[in-house]
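Late entry, written up from scratch paper. The run itself happened at the end of the previous shift, but nothing got recorded in the book at the time, so transcribing now.
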Amino acid sequence: MTDIYIIDDDTQNRRDWGALTGSARLTSVSCTGYRLTQEDGRELLDGTSGVVFIHEPYCPKDALPYISKNYPNLVLIQISGAGLPNGPRGDRYWSVGRAVGKPTDEMFAKRAQDFLRDYDKVGTPIFRRLEPNVEPILALRLLCEAWLATGGRSSKTFDNQITIHAPTKAADWFMPFQVSPNEEGVKAIIELLGDAREDTEALLKAIAGLRSRNGEAATLVPSLFRKSISDLLQKLRSHSSTTGVF
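Output as recorded:
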């Protein structure tokens, strides 16, 4: 099993890192001059292997490449409460784009456990495991943007050149996710959205309810949905920006 190291001075966080990593051997270290030192004062040997989780306040966010140079067999993962979408990334180190203030963050903890499980199996860090799947969020963003651009109409042509088609019927909002516009469909979509799921659930439930009351031909009335779709779009853009993907 992979050895786990943490750089985090918060006492409660240290306990939480232990809970997250399970039965893996956990060692607390500190970073000074791009060298890693154990609590008993001994430096880690250059050939030390394992995974290091770094809480950004306790180690400079630009330090990863330099630490990695000193310890080429370590895998370095840095988190920050503000997110690190533009932080350093390489073959053996990664700055997590989304905001993670604590190791108990539900979505991060699940991804970190998946990452460690895969690393134990293949010995190669698959850093994308640590980031949200942005494709479902992007798909929902495009639906919102198209609907707002057309003013709730099925299509609109701009400058007689570009035509945008928008999701006017309830079923149109669920079709890209290959689910039906009902309660089960809502659950299936929000499970794909990671941190954006709470912001999305209310709107999808309203759209699914519209269809259940009015049938297949149910369309979204602009005066009823414009504000909620506009608000959701702003939140989805905020979620997207923390990933550094788009």
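The first strand starts at residue 4 and ends at 7.
(Scratch paper discarded after transcription.)
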